[in-house]
Amino acid sequence: MDVDDKRVRIVFLDDSEDLREAMRVLLETALGVECMCFGSLMELEERSNEALDARMAILDINLGPGVPSGLDAFRWLNDQGFRGKVLFFTGHARTNPDVRLALERGAQVLEKPLQPDRLIALLTRALDEAS
Amino acid sequence: MRRDSAPGRALSLFDVHLSDRDAWFAATLAAVLNGIGMLLEMAIILTIPGVPIAPAAVSASAAALLLMALFIGRKTPSVRWASVIYSMTTVSVVTVLLLTNLKFAEMESNWSPFQTHKLGCLAAALLAPGFSVGLLSIAAYGLSAVIQLLFFFPDDVKMAATPSEPWPMIAFILAGVLALVYRFRHVQLEQEIARTQAQNFAIKRLASAFLNIRDLMNTPLQVIELSVDLLRQAREPAAPALDRIDRSVQNLREINSVLVQHEKEIEWQTGQSVSPDRP
C-alpha cells in the first residue's frame, strides 16, 4: 500500500459527526490517506467526482430515520461505476439481509466498535486489496 | 380468551375458559336446542295419550325467557352468566324428562329408553360454556336417568321397556365426558398457541428494539475508543477529543433511558425483574 501517496483517498459515510471527525483524524494520521467524510448520501452525491475517485468507501448502514441508508449509498456507488473497495462499518450487520446481499456483491463488513489497532489493521489490509 | 394461571404453567381443564362471547353463544345454542326440542316433545306427546304436556310447555316457555335474557345481555356477555343460564336450561330439560319418562315407558310401546338423556349428554359436551358446568350437566342428564331407572321405575316397566339399561346410558355418560375433555383440551391448546404466538411477537419486537439500541450504542462507543486512542498519541491540545468523548457518553446515557422503557416488557417476558438495585 502506498500510504505516503496523498492522492489515496477514502470516503467515509456516517451520520455521527463525532465519529466522522475521529475517523478522519485516525485515517489521516495512522494511514496517511485523505479522508472525505459525508453525513448522508445527498452530500456524497454533491461531491460525486471526488468521491468516485476514492480507493475505498467506508459506509455506515443506518444513517438516520427517513433518509437513504448506507445500502442505498452502496447501490449508488455501484450504479456510478465506483471501482474502489466498499466496507460497511455498522453497529449490527449480522441480521440484516441487505448486508448479506452486499457481501455477496463483494462488500466487506466491519462491526462497531472495533479497537483502533484492529481497525487500522483491517483498513490497511483492505486498502492493500483495493490497490 | 381469558388467562387465569401463572405464565408458563400448564392449565388444568378446569382453568380453561371460553371467551365471554363464545360462552354466550354456546348458552344461546343450548337454549335454542331446548326450545325446539320441547316443541318437538310436545308434538310427540300429543300423539301419545296419557303423557302430560305441561312440563314440556313450561320448559319451552323457560327456553324462550332464557333466550330473551341472552339476547338482552348479548352486548355484555360473560362466562359466569352464560354458565348460569346454561345450567338453568339443563335443569329445565332434566325436570321435564324425569316427569315424563315413566309415562312414555308405560304408554309408548316402542319407547327407546332415555334417548333425550343420551342426547343431552352429547349436547352438553358440545355446548357447555365451561368444563365444570359441562361435567355437571352430563352428570345431571346421565345420572338422573340411571337413578330414576334403578329406584323409581316399577320392575315390570323396567323389564319390559328398558331391559338393557342402564349400560347404554352409562356408555353415553362416558362418551359425553370424553367429548367434553377433548373439546376443552382443544380450547386449551388453542389458548396455549395464542399465548405462545403473543410471546413470540413480543420477543421479536424486543429483539428488534435491542438490535437498534445496539446499533445506536456502538457508534458512541467507537467514538470513545478512537478518541481515547488519539488522546494517548496526541501532541495537540486534547479539548476536541474530550468534547467528543463527552458527547458520546451523553449519547450512551440517552440510549440507557431508552432501555429503561423496555424494562417492563422484559419483566413480563421473564417473569422476574432484571432491574438493577435502586434506592
TL;DR?
The complex is a heterodimer of chains A (131) and B (279). Chain A has 131 residues and is of the alpha/beta class.
Structural description of this entry:
The complex is a heterodimer of chains A (131) and B (279). Chain A contains 6 helices and 5 strands. With 131 residues, chain A is α/β, with parallel strands linked by helices. The longest helix of chain A has 15 residues, at 17-31. Chain B has helices at residues 20-46, 54-72, 79-107, 115-127, 131-152, 155-161, 167-233, 239-261, 263-270. Chain B is rod-shaped. The two termini of chain B are 39 Å apart. The model of chain B is unreliable at 1-8 and 270-279 (pLDDT under 50). Chain A binds chain B through residues 14, 16, 18-19, 21-23, 25-26, 29, 60, 62, 90-92, 95, 111-117, 119, and chain B through 211-212, 214-227, 229-230, 233, 240-241, 244, 247-248.
Determine the fraction of residues in helical runs of chain B and give it as a percent range. over 70%
| Arrangement of strands in the largest sheet of chain A | 2-1-3-4-5
Characterize the biggest β-sheet of chain A.
5 strands, parallel
Q: How many DSSP helices of chain B?
A: 9
Coarse morphology of chain B: rod-shaped
Give the distance, in angstroms, between the N- and C-terminal Cα atoms of chain A: 7 Å
Q: Which stretches of chain B are poorly predicted, pLDDT < 50 over at least 5 residues? A: 1-8, 270-279
> What spatial form of chain A do the alpha-carbon principal axes imply?
globular
Overall mean pLDDT of chain A stands at 86
